[in-house]
Amino acid sequence: MAFKLDRVDEVFPTPLLRFEVADADRLNRNLMKEIAARQKAEGGMNRSNRKGWHSERDLFDRKEPAHSELAQMLLRMIAQATKHYAPNTDFTGMEILADGWINVNQRGAYNSPHDHVGSFWSGVYYVQQPEDVEGHSGTIEFLSPHKALQGRGLIEAPITADKMTVRPKAGMAILFPCTLVHWVHPNDSETDRVTIAFNAHFRRRQPVGPGQAIRSRKR
Ligand SMILES: [Fe+2]
Fold first, then answer.
1. What are phi and psi of 96, to 5 degrees?
2. Which Pfam family is one of this chain's hits (predicted)?
3. Long-range Cβ contact pairs of 9-16 (< 8 A, separation 24 or more)
4. Residue 3: what pLDDT?
5. 55-114 pLDDT, tens per residue?
6. Residues 6+ apart with CB under 8 A from 128
7. What's the rounded Cα separation, in Å, for the pair 29 and 75?
8. Is 115 exposed, middle or buried (0-12, 13-18, 19+ CB in 10 A)?
9. How many A from CA of 84 to the centre of ligand 1?
10. Which sign does the torsion angle of CA 217, 114, 104, 122 carry?
11. Could you say which architecture CATH assigns to the domain 17-204?
């Protein structure tokens, strides 16, 4: 009996996008200066990070030039990614609500498994990522939202994977749905691992002045 494949739906996709920032060396040098100043001036917060420094979640309100430059760029990435996955959406009546914070992970520091449920997109920008390491040091690992399929190891494909590991580089930004569980392996280097994490979601634009198709504020 003959048959043909009639239709395939990729249901509940989990995109993981990677962006490469042009001229990232200049941006990162300036960010490192601004972050060093903030570490001196501010205390820190303990969230999913262990042995690290965690800033306030105010990236999108900061006035420092490099903070602000990065924040504006991240908003453009978020808009681009959303348009890619939802091309028919009319974004003109919407605004992006975003928050972001800095993680400085010294040697031995890591982030335990967590998600960012309550937003839409989550992401990370890599300001300084030690490269003098082996193994999993400093890598970010994403855990499958699906229960494992029997036969893992026999059938090797994205459909059977229970995790995905990414070794980031400075100047890279990654973006993924906020529900995706992830964690960061301990930093084995003497060099700090410096990252900026962020969340973003959309809402109907509140009555504001003209010309503000997209604006952000701290969540
Ligand atoms: Fe995270």
1. -100, 130
2. 2OG-FeII_Oxy_5
3. 12/145, 14/145, 14/176, 14/177, 14/180, 15/81, 15/85, 15/175, 15/176, 15/177, 16/142, 16/164, 16/166, 16/174, 16/175, 16/176, 16/180
4. 97
5. 999 999 999 999 999 999 999 999 999 999 999 999 888 999 999 999 999 998 888 899
6. 28, 32, 170, 191, 192, 193, 194
7. 21
8. middle
9. 23
10. negative
11. Sandwich (2.60)
Residue 112 CA, ligand 1 centroid: distance in Å: 9
Contact indicator for 104, 9 with CB cutoff of 8 Å: no
> How much distance in Å is there from the Cα of 16 to the middle of ligand 1?
13
At 65 the three-state DSSP class reads: helix
Bridge partners for 101 per DSSP: 197
Kindly give the distance from the C-alpha atom of residue 215 to the centroid of ligand 1, in angstroms, as a whole number: 23
> What are the domain boundaries of the chain?
17-204
What pLDDT shows up at residue 195?
A: 97
